[in-house]
Amino acid sequence: MSAKVLGFVHTSATLVPLFQQLTNEFLSGVETFNIVDDSLIKDVIKKGKLMPNTAARVVNHVQAAEAAGADVILVTCSSIGVAIETAATLSGVPVIRVDQAMADEAVQISNKIGVIATLPTTLEPTSDLVRRRAELAGKNVTISSKLCEGAFEALMSGDAAKHDDMVAKALKELMKEVDVIVLAQASMARVVDGLSAEEKLVPILASPAIAMKKLAELYF
């Protein structure tokens, strides 16, 4: 029997090695391939929201991944979440948002949930997803969202240390208000790794590993 194939659709090439590492960890023996188009996220940032023509291109990429032989498709960008859900209705194979399993986990932990992002275009889609997953689970949740303004720009200009400091500071403030925090962007996960055990007052969830664990349970 041939190995199952997992197709990734990314809006940043920087996520390719991270998800390869997670594949090796959780899905050994599974074949993967990557479709990367950073013009998608650039357009969302420039326009301030996901435009219909950009959403259509997300759907096209997902269909291309299915045509290339993917048994399951994981889309690793939260800013294009609505388009991913549309693509899933048009696909013959499972199409998964990277942040869905994380949202489900947060809803199970507590009804006081924090969402943190470095991009406004990611903050709202992630908060919206948490809200909808809570409704689906029959739970009432309070969502506190926090935007680290300037952190994304610092990262893009090559100042990773500034980005990490800003995110760490915002995390520490948000931890005082909520019982669990979800990171709206995979790129923020490394900041959590840099916090000491004493600093992590509440669980902080990052989507990549949670998504890959869930894929291993459900499909591979």
Can you characterise this structure?
With 220 residues, the protein is of the alpha/beta class. It is 52% helix and 17% strand. The chain contains 10 helices and 8 strands. The strands form 2 sheets. A 4-stranded parallel β-sheet has the order 2-1-3-4, with helices on both faces. It has a 4-stranded parallel β-sheet with strand order 6-5-7-8, with helices on both faces. Strand 7, helix 9 and strand 8 form a beta-alpha-beta unit. The model has no long low-confidence stretch (mean pLDDT 94).
Please outline what is shown here:
The chain is an alpha/beta fold. It has 10 helices and 8 strands.
Helix and strand string, N-terminal first? EHEHHEHEHEHEHHEHEH
Radius of gyration: 17 Å
Strands of the widest sheet, in order across it, are 2-1-3-4
On the 0 to 100 scale, the average pLDDT is: 94
Query: Which spans of ≥5 residues are poorly predicted at pLDDT below 50?
Result: none
Number of strands: 8
Classify the beta-strand content into a percent band.
15-25%
Count of discrete alpha- or pi-helical segments spanning 4 or more residues: 10
Q: Key features?
A:
220 residues, 10 helices, 8 strands
